[in-house]
Write a structure and sequence with these properties.
Two copies of one chain form a homodimer. By secondary structure, chain A is α/β, with parallel strands linked by helices. Chain A is built from seven helices and ten strands. Chain A is globular, with a radius of gyration of 17 Å. At the A-B interface, helix 5 and helix 6 of A face helix 5 and helix 6 of B. The structure holds adenosine-5'-triphosphate (ATP) (2 copies) and magnesium ion (MG) (2 copies).
Chain lengths: ~230, ~230
């Protein structure tokens, strides 16, 4: 499903080079649920952004669902991303002047669904994160954890083939973090491949496969365990 | 130091009233280190914003360091806040077009310190959170956890009498979360009164006093334990 080989990402700012990813190798099969952990600044968000076609690698190869990403133009990458990828961003990235209903609607509009189908999905997604009553409010009227839940609803509603979640429970209490994990496990059973960055050791332990990123490189812990 | 009695906070939006705080009573003595926990949407940020003079209560009384807050004008509240309160915001609230050095400098400029003293404090604060090398970068060039650390440095540099921290470790791995807790415990020993909202049960257990907020009301767990 996802195959990265020798991926490097270098950011250059006023003559300082930051090597965010170095010779990064990773394969994720269709249907897997992989958690990603690692220290702050180690490259987790950079990895997700490249995986989700939001950024391009400086070098190396990346194949998503059989498609060679490096051969694509910007607009082709954009189309592929809208069709196949769902995101839960570390900073939520909600649109401030849209209410919750419209915020959840944004990615659905790229999927060619009818207005009736979108409305049904939005209402179900908001209900599942406990925010149906706030559909007409805007993000600034919500608590930090509530905003995070809207970002989760937005990704769930899209039923994407491939879901990338960057710290989806960082602002939630333990009970709600577990509920969100259950929602994600549910859509994983329904066929969505999930890669989730988390700092929560409980959630990492709960996933079938965990990968650690340190200093821009992968350490796949599962290759050391007896299965 | 902090005394709230019968505090209510009601948000009114298109005819819906949200009671964020209800008959909220809380006293915090000078020099305490109190953690605050509770479900998402329960009122923790609202409580901190009123405590830190960023918002006003709908009703009830609030006394900070002997001063009756409700009697103050907006500008008097602002002056008091700049002199006495340090904030670590849930959303970091860094200024996007200022580099890290200038971001940490912002609250120091209200304190009447010389440029030499401010420079020394900024460099020390950034070094303590491991970001001295990035002083000339802007927030968008940093990871989520790095941005959170800049917000922490900004609050530490001010050496405020009263520090309000809203989820200061939500984007940090466990090792770094513990290091941040040590930094906070250090300034608490030096005299800063700290109120910290957290979802991390380990940090809540580590603090000398923990308060739970549920549905806009306080449950002070310590009053039930034998001390
Ligand atoms: N400007 C506003 N207008 C309307 N309702 C608001 C506003 N700000 C906050 N609220 C509501 O007040 C309640 C308390 O919000 P608050 O941000 O204090 O919660 P919290 O405990 O910090 O939650 P979290 O753990 O998710 O950060 C929530 O139901 C929230 O939606
Ligand atoms: N636009 C940019 N310009 C320069 N450096 C960058 C940029 N974006 C990220 N970096 C750097 O690349 C490294 C990896 O960042 P990344 O956001 O991937 O870390 P992360 O593992 O997600 O961290 P966290 O757990 O704190 O969110 C960091 O050192 C960061 O400062
Ligand atoms: Mg990140
Ligand atoms: Mg909050």
């Amino acid at each position: 499903m996802l195959k990265m080989k020798g991926v490097n990402k270098v950011y250059t700012t006023d003559m300082i080079e930051t090597h965010a990813l170095r010779e990064f190798d990773l394969s994720v099969e269709s249907g897997e649920f992989v958690t990603v952990t690692g220290p702050s600044g180690s490259g987790k968000t950079t990895f997700l952004n490249i995986a989700g076609l939001l950024e391009t690698a400086t070098s190396g190869s990346y194949e998503l669902d059989g498609v060679d990403i490096l051969g694509l133009s910007d607009s082709q990458r954009s189309v592929l991303r809208n069709q196949k990828v769902g995101f839960i961003f570390q900073g939520f990235n909600l649109i401030p002047d849209l209410n919750l209903f419209d915020n959840v609607d944004v990615p659905l509009r790229y999927r060619g669904l009818s207005a009736k189908e979108r409305k049904a999905r939005i209402e179900e997604a908001l209900a599942r994160v406990g925010l149906a009553a706030r559909a007409k409010h805007v993000p600034s009227q919500l608590s930090g954890g509530q905003q995070q839940r809207v970002a989760i609803a937005r990704a769930l509603a899209g039923k994407p083939k491939f879901l990338l979640a960057d710290e989806p429970t960082g602002n939630l209490d333990s009970l709600m973090a577990r509920q969100v994990m259950e929602l994600l496990e549910e859509i994983n059973t329904e066929g969505t491949t999930i890669v989730m960055v988390t700092h929560d050791p409980e959630l990492a332990a709960r996933s079938k496969r965990n990968i650690q990123i340190v200093d821009g490189q992968v350490c796949d812990m599962n290759s050391y365990s007896v299965s």
